[in-house]
Write a sequence for this structure.
């Protein structure tokens, strides 16, 4: 999956992607759901190994960055994919419009504070990329500052990788038609009204500006150490399966191993069996 969905080098044209495609999987929705359930034990095992590894002083960790337009399924991916592993090993952060305090600092300040600890899988629902996407499209920073940020992001991610973090950046790509359907169904469902923001419709009106901002961001920040992956996301089941496989493959490449015990297991076994005071 890593090879299949990895953004190829060169110019990015998001309109050329088929957002209903299911690369690497030729089954239907039911088969896709089964495949997701089937990968869960492996994902759980790998995550637990990574978590255990930290007891040996390892600083390795994973940062899963989820980006996409409103309704692209960032939250659903957190529930269905991150939800497959032990919550204790996760650090999940959603990034909304920055607070006054956050705005008083460099854009990476709040990001650094949300990074996973060793052994954890960090998940970002939106991220530092909003600072070259929403901020660019809404004109919240000048061109020179946006330009500076691409380099700052690359330096930041290279530093993360250097210190043991695997960075997995996924763009969940939906079509404008699919977004319209999803926004309409949110409007039809009172239990989803809390998710609606007037800015969703404003952002949708600037779809082509966002697409252009995404294309530039992907071109400028898909690096050897932290490449982008483009996930066709009109089919929710495929999106979940693809991100689960990307995460599984990433962890499998890291190949975390069960650490040896910190105690003399045989000595402790004898103590338990021979000197047990509770018998
Ligand atoms: P949601 O993901 O639906 O909770 O919406 C979060 C909102 O916060 C979106 O409209 C984002 O574009 C916005 N947002 C996130 N990060 C930033 C940022 N750095 N600057 C401006 N807006 C942001
Ligand atoms: Mg929203």
């Amino acid at each position: 999956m890593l090879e299949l969905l990895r953004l190829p080098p060169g110019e990015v044209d998001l309109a050329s992607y088929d957002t209903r495609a299911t690369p690497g999987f030729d089954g239907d929705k039911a088969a896709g759901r089964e495949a997701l359930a089937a990968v869960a034990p492996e994902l759980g095992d790998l995550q637990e190994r990574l978590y255990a590894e930290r007891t040996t002083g390892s600083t390795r960790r994973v940062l899963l960055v989820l980006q996409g337009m409103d309704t692209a399924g960032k939250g659903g991916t957190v529930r269905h994919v991150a939800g497959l592993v032990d919550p204790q090993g996760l650090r999940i952060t959603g990034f909304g419009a920055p607070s006054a305090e956050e705005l008083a600092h460099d854009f990476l300040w709040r990001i650094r504070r949300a990074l996973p600890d060793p052994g954890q899988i960090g998940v970002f629902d939106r991220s530092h990329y909003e600072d070259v996407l929403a901020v660019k499209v809404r004109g919240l920073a000048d061109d020179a500052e946006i330009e500076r940020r691409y380099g700052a992001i690359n330096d930041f991610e290279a530093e993360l990788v250097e210190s043991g973090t695997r960075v997995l950046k996924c763009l969940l790509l939906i079509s404008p038609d699919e977004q319209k359907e999803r926004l309409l169904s949110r409007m039809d469902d009172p239990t989803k009204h809390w998710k609606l923001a007037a800015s969703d419709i404003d952002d949708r009106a600037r779809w082509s500006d966002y697409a252009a901002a995404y294309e530039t961001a992907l071109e400028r920040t898909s690096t050897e150490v932290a490449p982008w992956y483009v996930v066709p996301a009109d089919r929710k089941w495929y999106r979940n399966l693809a991100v689960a496989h990307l995460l599984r493959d990433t962890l499998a490449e890291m190949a975390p191993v069960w650490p040896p015990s910190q105690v003399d297991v045989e000595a402790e076994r004898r103590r338990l069996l021979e000197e047990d005071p509770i018998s």
Q: What stands out?
A: The chain has a mean pLDDT of 96.
